[in-house]
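step: validate -> pass
step: tokenize input -> pass
step: predict -> running
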Amino acid sequence: MTRILAYTSPAIGHLFPMIPILLELRDRGHEVHVRTLPEQLDLVRGLGLPAEAIDPGIRALPADDYSGKNPKEALDRAAALFCARGELDGPDLDRALRDVGPDLVLVDTNSWGACDAAEAWGGPWTIFSPYTPAISSAGTPPFGPGLLPMRGPLGRLRDAAVRPLVIGAVEKSMKPRMNALRAHYGLAPVGSADEYFRRAPLMLVTTSEPFEYPHPDWGDGIRMVGALPWEPPTARPGWLDDLDGPVVLVTTSSEYQADEALVRAALEALEDEPYTVIATMPAGVNHIGEVPRNARVEEFVPHGHVLDQTAVAVTHGGMGATQKALARGIPVCVVPFGRDQLEVAARVVHADAGSRLAVKKLSPSALRDAVRTAATKQAGAARVAAGFAAAGGAPAGADAMEALLTPARH
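step: predict -> pass
step: emit ->
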């Protein structure tokens, strides 16, 4: 029996998309071990997957990228966090490798030290990326600012000018720390972000065309498998049965980023619209004020149950929440606050699957208009849903991972 070890970063937004692949591998007869958040252990074990907690010190290092004043500063803060966490998650994976003795390893892309430990381990390993990685590609704008693709000489000129200001600047400041992590494992230094993120034999990315831009130069080592929407099996909340008419689902990030402003704006913007507004705030419900009669604010509600009645999803631009709606053909209105969310919003516009509203322009009236625009984009959302399905999902990801195993071990 092949033994597989999966290691996640401290975010349920990264754990949950990974679970469909883990369950697919389990169902194929592999023994799958997981290292994840301590409060998710009962859930993961209940799925038949042996699990232990990651080092608690990893999550104790909080994300502060949302306080960056521009995309470059936000990326720089995120990279600094992943390097700091890497000093803990690398040794943490080392311990798990000794305890489990795996044949194949799957590591969250945000666990930089664990990725280095997996590379140094020397066996077959895979990076799991629940968002589009910052890997360059011809015709694709540099990652960060959320620029739309621009063809022709002007587009190439723009991208060439912006890349060193964003990714290049982050590379310059972070390479010493990234390479210090690598040196601890006796690994050669890397010279670019591309080299760093391409170091695994395989990367699984949870997206696909037409939502994602074409990347013919990425090669077989980067496999887009489509959206992997998953949430814990839970009973449908009884209050959903009492709702009349369509719903607008509003989501905020599971890792705090001061995005409660989105909920406040949505409650006011849609108070007189023909919708019931359901807002979820997994990082904690706070600073909301009075909730209108046509709205409900919850820390957690299984999105799948709500999406059954949803006409438009208003998201913070998290890949998981946005793609969960699009996978059902539901158009989205994206208000990105930072992280990869600017890039997610740009892809929504590129696919004509919804609307985007800059957070600097967020107001009840502007959001109301953006929701009305998104509601007209059902055809684009349906095309995205079809593209996700065609990418193969968890079976395609499991196939790619199994291909890394030698015949003797598979």
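step: describe -> The first strand starts at residue 3 and ends at 7.
step: cleanup -> pass
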